[in-house]
Amino acid sequence: MTDTSIFQNKKAAYFTLGCKLNFAETSTIGKMLKEAGVQTVKKGEKADICIINTCSVTEVADKKCRQAIHRMVKEHPGAFVVVIGCYAQLKPEQVAAIEGVDLVLGAEQKGELMNYLGTLEKHTHGEAVTTAVKDIRTFVPSCSRGDRTRYFLKVQDGCDYFCSYCTIPFARGRSRNGRIADLVEQASQVASEGGKEIVLTGVNIGDFGKTTGETFFELVQALDEVEGIERYRISSIEPNLLTDEIIAFVAHSKRFMPHFHIPLQSGCDEVLKLMRRRYDTQLFASKVCTIKSYMPDAFIGVDVIVGTRGEIPEYFERAYRFIEELDVTQLHVFSYSERPGTQALKIDYVVSPEDKHLRSQRLLALSDEKTHAFYARHIGQEAVALMEHAKPGMPMHGFTSNYIRVEMEGREELDNQMVRVRLDGFNEDGTALKGVLCKVLG
User: Fold this and answer.
1) Alpha helix (H) ranges present in 80-178?
2) What is the pTM of this model?
3) Which of 113, 161, 251, 372 has its Cβ near the most Cβ atoms within 10 Å?
């Protein structure tokens, strides 16, 4: 039993990098510390404990993690500094050697952080506590809200896919998940707190069920019955795991929104093979067509990586033409980053940084065209939006069921309210549609 008396009136600062899953996990750690008596530091205050949750998806991410650690150490002198997350699991000794770091916890240990804090006395040298990736087995439940209206519910962790460019399986371990009954209970708790929208998060959420003998489709069905939740959104799901059964259910469900995020990574079959992806462009295109046949106005976001090893100019052009023809809404474009220990490093052809940049810019421009056209089709229509808290000086905004960003001046009282609006043209910078309030739905 951890003695929590030493945590009374202590203050903690948190910094999270990377994915929504990391933010959900940081939120859970924050709740644990709060229950032990630790307060979250306010602006200008000095913290007694610093928690940095790291990412390692690219070389740039690693650099940002190191910068964040140095910054937190400088801003909170004398604080007990803990580093967790993917970078901590992959490079524990390197992180522990950073001046000011006291404790580095791996993927298996971060959920038990309270047991490793001791008396919060600074260490002479950083201590790293990790587990070999093959022995990472624990699923740590997490659900976060942060400053937004939407909650992020972690339903799955880890990945068994081992794509040639990716280190995530080495950072998070094998695929594992929570029990449907427990996740339904978490969703019910969100509803009791007044939460109206939940995003299901994980590393490979379509692979849900590996540890419990359940399926992602069964999870979706169960969550759809939770009273009080108005909306669910499915975060990134592999195209080979997005079954027609799931698509059809979302189309007719009470609470799941017509909004999909599907990683494509490349629109060229030769590159998909080099990446060791588990589908081809034909399968991907068929999934998009199936979604649109059920839900013509569905928002479809797509992840694309440019400049991966082996992506010769001809392959990129082939990918560009494929994506250009896809009826999708938005592209999330990433430049390939060399990751130590990955199989992609064995591929000979290397794309120059200049070509990566040019390819990225072309796809980003294509994404803007597709998003603008999608938004434009909805001008003049009415839609239901869930309004979110606006930052000072910014217009009130929210999202429709199919994820169109809507902005309205003022109306702070509409925070976390479902409203019916008329979509009345683009805002000044073209990133959202202006909403005219028709009715507050509650």
Assistant:
1) 86-90, 92-96, 168-172
2) 0.92
3) 113
